[in-house]
Design a protein that fits this description.
Elements: E1 19-23, E2 26-37, E3 40-54, E4 60-63, H1 71-86
Antiparallel strand pairs: 1-2, 2-3, 3-4
Length: 92
C-alpha cells in the first residue's frame, strides 16, 4: 500500500485583527477565524495582548510580557475584548 502524501500547505497571509483595544501602551487585538464544523460555518475568536515601548534608537517595539504597572491595563483591555466578542452574532 502506498502512503498518501499531504500537499504542502500554502502560506497563509497574516490576517489583521478585527478590532484592537488600546490603553496607553497596552493593547488587545481580537482575531476572527472561520471554520466549518459539522457543515455549519463558525467563527472562533482569539485575543493577543502586547505592550509597546521605544528602544534606545526611538524605534517602536512590541513585547508580550507585562510589568506590575501594566496588569490593570491588561485587565481593562481584556474586558473590552470580552464585551466585543460576546456582542458578535452566534457567540453565546
Amino acid at each position: 500500500m502506498e502512503k498518501s502524501k499531504k500537499a504542502a500547505a500554502e502560506p497563509q497571509p497574516a490576517k489583521a485583527p478585527v478590532k484592537v483595544f488600546v490603553i496607553e501602551d497596552v493593547s488587545a487585538s481580537v482575531f476572527a477565524r472561520q471554520f466549518q464544523v459539522r457543515g455549519d460555518d463558525r467563527t472562533f475568536y482569539s485575543v493577543s495582548f502586547s505592550r509597546s515601548y521605544r528602544d534606545s534608537l526611538g524605534k517602536r517595539k512590541y513585547i508580550k510580557s507585562f510589568n506590575l504597572e501594566d496588569l490593570g491595563k491588561v485587565v481593562a483591555v481584556a474586558q473590552q475584548a470580552d464585551e466585543f466578542i460576546r456582542q458578535q452574532p452566534g457567540v453565546s
